[in-house]
User: Fold Cation-transporting P-type ATPase C-terminal domain-containing protein from Paramoeba aestuarina.
Amino acid sequence: VKGAADKLNDLCRDQVVGDDINQTSELDREYWAQKAADLSSLGLRVLALCVARIDENEDLDDIDASFILRRPKFLTMVGLVAILDPPREECIDSIAEAHAAGIMVKMITGDHAQTALAIGYMLGIAHENGIVYTGPQLDEMGPEKLKDVVKECNIFARSSPENKIQIVQALQEIGEVASMTGDGVNDAPALKAANIGVAMGVTGTDVSKEASQMVLADDNFSTIIAAVKEGRRVWDNLRKILTFNLPCNFAQGMSVFLPLFLTELEDIPLTVIQVLYVNMITAVTMGLMLACEPAEKQIMKKPPRQPKKRLLGRFVVWRIVIITIYMAIAVIGVFWGGA
Assistant:
């Protein structure tokens, strides 16, 4: 039998003596709990290996976890196995970039609390005071307490699927935009509840992919940060295009429309050919240049924009109006002076 060390430790009756699996002695629970905690604090995932002696006449066709849970303690502790699953180097760099961009990164895992905390230190998301909450602790909290916890804590261990939904909803209730990543069937409810669900394209299940708004083709956290950067670039470039094209088009329209009310002008400043040239050559060419402009160097140093922020804000609208007026006056003035 293999499983979480802290869980199986409570289900064991005795332990193996030396290398002889047939010799047992009284179980030293504190010893095994301390060894598991020591290994977990190093960022290792710890599994306990146990053996159980079962009567040969018992029916084992439908054996499952409940087979152990519903019986008196009969397991024998054999040893612990520690597995190292270090985070990728590019993931650490991406998390640092996310922090610089004002994005909070939180880890929700089913691992032991000490393991999760050690990995959190490796990733740079754990607080210096070592705050970590487990699923059972979250279950005992009220809604208001949970909101405070999800704001201050970045690491959640021994979490159930219900805990993941609780964390996502608590973040949304305090005004945050929550993005959830996952690959399993039990992640699907939280992926669906999040503002942006991100599923793993390689290891993810079909259920998790269908519940998500985005699927990572390479299962790499760095791709999410790259997508955020690209989204910010598109937003900035779109505003640049509008800031350039709208004054040109509005000024062009005013240059044609206003002279109709000026009796001193006998003709319209812009001919049909000039209007077509501005629309099809100048505006389109500059628009393509602005659309393909690379991201600014400091784009990932800016805080996230507000979800309700308008594409054309008050400042941009005023710039469009002022530049439109200046351009229209310039065109009409030059034409008038020449006439």
In short: The mean pLDDT is 88. The longest strand covers residues 75-84.
